[in-house]
Design brief:
Elements (H helix, E strand, L loop, with lengths): L4 H7 L6 H8 L23 E8 L23 E5 L5 H12 L6 E9 H5 L11 E5 L8 E6 L8 H11 L6 E2 L7 H4 L3 H4 L10
Antiparallel strand pairs: 1-2, 1-3, 2-5, 3-6, 4-5
């Protein structure tokens, strides 16, 4: 019987085992070929670019210019939030970043990492040959470009490090693109000046 992916999406909102519930109800990434959210214009296509915003200190090492391993943690629980960069409007991305920064004064937007949806979907588990990750549209009313990445099946906790390494690799080896590059600086320009000018740690200015 065909899975009702829209209902599945709604029923698992904020569920800490969301990706596993979806994987078991719709195995083999079945919901990729259907709309998961009625706020999405269409399911995520292979040629799309996926981006994830990076902020300090929540996402990066305190002393080194690198992402924390936990940056990809939600791919094993709630679903890893990313943005469809060709689809996302400038103001929607700006609102997203502002939402990250406003709760705490020490938060600063550094930039973003990106990957090809096709490359992500092509990742395979070496031992089983199965897909590692699914990519679902999960558009929101004020952010139709919102998308989620989740593991394609329940995996042992011991295997999660391998999966994280593959995510890091496909997201450009964790190389963070400067915020000025996102939509040619249009996103940064739409942010309040106070948030734009928040100081960045020394290592990110070198």
């Amino acid at each position: 019987m065909k899975c009702d992916c829209v209902k599945l999406n709604l029923d698992t909102q904020n569920h800490e085992d969301r990706v596993y519930v979806i994987a078991e109800a719709a195995p083999d990434c079945a919901c990729e070929s259907q709309l998961v959210s009625l706020h999405s214009p269409h399911s995520v296509r292979a040629e799309e670019t996926l981006g994830r915003m990076v902020c300090t200190p929540m996402h990066v090492h305190s002393k080194r210019k690198e992402l924390k391993p936990s940056f990809f943690e939600h791919a094993f629980s709630y679903g890893l939030s990313v943005q469809r960069l060709e689809l996302a409007a400038h103001d929607e991305l700006a609102s997203l970043v502002v939402g990250f920064l406003e709760p705490k004064e020490d938060r600063t937007w550094l930039g973003y990492v990106e990957c090809s949806c096709e490359h992500l979907r092509n990742l395979r588990d070496e031992s089983s040959g199965m897909r590692m990750f699914c990519v679902y549209d999960s558009g929101e009313e004020n952010n139709p470009a919102h998308t989620e990445i989740g593991v394609s099946r329940r995996i042992p906790e011991a295997d999660q490090n391998e999966y994280r390494r593959e995510l890091m690799r496909v997201f450009g080896e964790g190389v963070i693109k400067n915020r000025e590059k996102l939509h040619d600086g249009s996103v940064l320009a739409l942010m309040p000046q106070e948030l734009q000018s928040r100081p960045r740690p020394k290592q990110w200015l070198e």
